[in-house]
Amino acid sequence: MIKTVARATRVPTMPRVPRTAVLMILAALASVPACCNSPDDAPPAPNRAEGGPSGGASGGGTPVYDYEGPPIEAAITMDGGSRVLKVDVTVPSGGWEFALDGVEPIKGATGACVVKLTLTQPGADDIVTQALETHTQRVAMPEGARSCKVTVSRVQRGVHYLVAPEHKLARIVLSQ
Q1: Distance of CA 70 to CAs 44, 107, 120, Å?
Q2: Which candidate among 10, 30, 59, 172 keeps its CA 20 to 30 Å from the CA of 1?
Q3: pLDDT tens-digit series, residues 73-101
Q4: How far apart are CA 105 and CA 116, in angstroms?
Q5: Strand ranges in the chain using DSSP code E only, listed in sequence order
Q6: How far from chain centre, in Å, is Cα 119?
Q7: Nearest one of 115, 112, 171, 169 to 146, comparing CA atoms
Q8: What is the pLDDT of residues 31-62, one digit of tens each?
Q9: Which secondary structure element, helix H or strand E, spans residue 11, and what is its range?
Q10: How far apart are the first and last CA of the chain?
Q11: In Å, how far are 29, 31, 39, 40 from 34, measured between CA atoms?
């Protein structure tokens, strides 16, 4: 009869890490998402007019607001004897710029124009204040214009574009 002897084999274990080292590593990992994700990194929320277009194509000729970015408000007011388009954009931090690119009449449409604006957001490494700001552009409307399409091109400072980003429809404003 043969006897079998069982041998206890020892499984190697990891060395013990001091508790303070573990807590420091966990604290460092917990702070990484907070410092790397800023509100500017988040994809912009669609800017839809209240009670306006829903963003889908419809048979009734409802316009589609394809601009995505900080909220845009626009209104036509009278300043003396001329119409002025006032466009406001509320941005989440400092470092943004809002500039007028031009005003053009719409060909084939009487009393309508297109206002082209550019919204420049801070660069990826820019240090900015974290406070809501409102930028305003006041545009004198062409003679006889009673309605206006507001289009916005959105760019980022420090980024070089081979082709400039296109202007996207942000608002359609009618004079009252």
Answers
A1: 7, 29, 11
A2: 10
A3: 999 998 888 899 999 999 999 999 999 99
A4: 11
A5: 72-79, 82-91, 97-105, 112-121, 133-140, 147-156, 168-174
A6: 9
A7: 112
A8: 665 444 444 444 444 444 433 443 333 344 56
A9: none
A10: 109
A11: 10, 5, 11, 13
Eight-state DSSP code of residue 65: -
R_g over Cα of the chain: 28
Residue with tokens 């062409």: 142
Residue that the structure tokens 């500039």 belong to: 99
Q: Which of 22-31, 46-55, 140-149, 152-161 has the lowest mean pLDDT?
A: 46-55
Query: Which candidate, 65, 64, 135, places its Cα nearest to that of 96?
Result: 135
Report which residue type is found at 117.
L
Q: Tell me the whole-structure pTM to 2 decimals.
A: 0.64
Distance CA 87, CA 139 (A): 8
Residue ranges covered by each domain of the chain? 72-174
Closest of 98, 70, 84 to residue 170, by C-alpha: 70
